[in-house]
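Worked problem 6 (solution included).
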Amino acid sequence: MKSLNFFIVILSSLSLATITKSQDPSYLYHSCSNDTTYTRNSTYQANLNLLLSSLVSNATRNNLNGFYNSSLGLDPDDVYGLFLCRGDVNKNACHNCVALASKDAIQRCPVEKVVVLWYDLCLLRYSNRAFFATMDQDPGVFLFKSDQNIADEPERFNRLVATTMNDTVTRATIATSGGKKFAVEEVYFTKSLNLYSLAQCTPDLSSSDCNRCLRIATSILPSCCSQKPGASILYPSCNVRYETFKFYNMTTVAAKPPPPPPPTPLTRPKGRGHVSIIVIVAIVIPIAVSMMLFCMGFGFLRRRARKNRVSLPEKDDGDEISTVESLQFDLSSIEAATNNFSPDNKLGEGGFGEVYKGTLPNGQQIAVKRLSKYSGQGEAEFKNEVLLIAKLQHRNLVRLLGFCLQGAEKILIYEFVPNKSLDHFLFDPAKQGLLDWSIRCKIIGGIARGLLYLHEDSRLRIIHRDLKASNVLLDGEMNPRIADFGMAKIFGGDQSQGITNRIAGTFGYMSPEYAMHGQYSVKSDVYSFGVLILEIISGKKNSSFYQSDNGMDLLSYAWKQWTNGTALELMDATLGDSYSRNEITRCLHIALLCVQEDPKNRPTLTTIVLMLTSFSVTLPLPRKPAYCVQSRTGSSLPIRGLESDRSTSTSKSLSVNDMSITELYPR
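Solution. The predicted structure is:
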């Protein structure tokens, strides 16, 4: 893959907030290529002026739906251009934005032939080469608020962003009746906060190219913008954005449903027809009453039968569970065990709901996962997790004891694991010291054996799809237990890979082929395991590492230390002298093998377990990780250069003092 120019624009909260919800265009960023220029008053400039005039005049046409491309001239003076207006703006706002951009382009890029300008309401682009109907991600820009983070439930917010952006992208790839490839979505986060998302492609792209462009854009969000309340990824061919305020015009993108038709008046028939209605009513009412009494009696008997099978065996005798209903708990029993879901019993909160500690009448301690009514896990995922985990028996997998599906409640009952999840220790400065190197080694090995069981040793091949530190629980002896199988996929027979249009999981842990194209396999879990090993070695969270380590994500930093021969620089400082140099270097080597871009180059779990347990096995050299980004110069662009570039910006332009920009080459 060729190198790409990528720009990071870190905005103050005030700067991004000035991107108004009204139909007034606000300048975001521009790119001018100095590689190709033209001479003033040349034929090319004359063609360019005519093209820009054509773009502006066509911005008011209703039938274009905010998109138009055209070309003028003959080689070598031919010029190609287009505009794309945001899918929710009207033709007047579109025209104003394109007109402003066409004037701005000449001022910002006076002699450059290859130009892209981004406004919040439109995109203007022109070049001396044909680019229509071609997916282009060079250059790219991402913007986010520099001084704000989500304070409440940041992990759940990150997960909500991932699932919401996935749904928005899926809908945007399908052109509407007007030809737009555009979608927005609003989802609930808290009582006082909703999440608003947007995805858009130029309509000349094919659905597959649009999907690929948007998937690559969303894959950047975890590295740049974890826990940020708003962010945008801008490419010449597509863009995505999310905010915690409504930044688009809802009335133009989500039409109200038509009113229900008026009720048909009941006309009373004359003559003998009147007698017929009386007879029909006399027959129907007794039948309806009889059916209602039958249903009530059946429901009563079923509730009694359910209560009679609440208790579960304390020990698993190893026999196959014949029916899922044998694991069903009554809601009243769960409420009694958790003291009616008391806050004092709350163990934590994940992407799908809250977890409580409970105690059964026989004294057995349990962990109760109560799925949120607003979570992404519906009844299908719930049943998937029940059916799946009930048949899995391994010391490194959490054990399911039962479930409750009653009314709106969807609850899972697990064995109680006393030491919570791995992230509770790994990313807490006060608790990191409790994980010495021997414990971390044991955790890495245990996770590997649990995954090996899922991939090879269970009766069905199972892809977890959401392996991360918060989904690894620790028992009383700090043995890892892989948990949360709501997103797992089951393979039967010789099946080894699959594809989906609904991407589920956590960005930063998702393999590139899955995040971008929906392709998942056992190698998807291997990639996630590699990221997790790097987190265990470093004690740093992958999603937030970027902001604290000079603009490098965790994978890039690990690769840098590996290639420099300074692997121990990655090590968590709290390990002190408890580590083995050879073991840490070998674990880093294995992690880098796991996160290689091509799934074929990643080892299987069988090989990984062998690598971890035998130093006699020779490890191949790893290749550069996926998503590995590096600065062209190793430092930010000089501010003085930016000041001269931005001297002609409008009053709503972003202040130079509120941003820093680095040019990147993502792989």
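Discussion: The mean pLDDT is 78.
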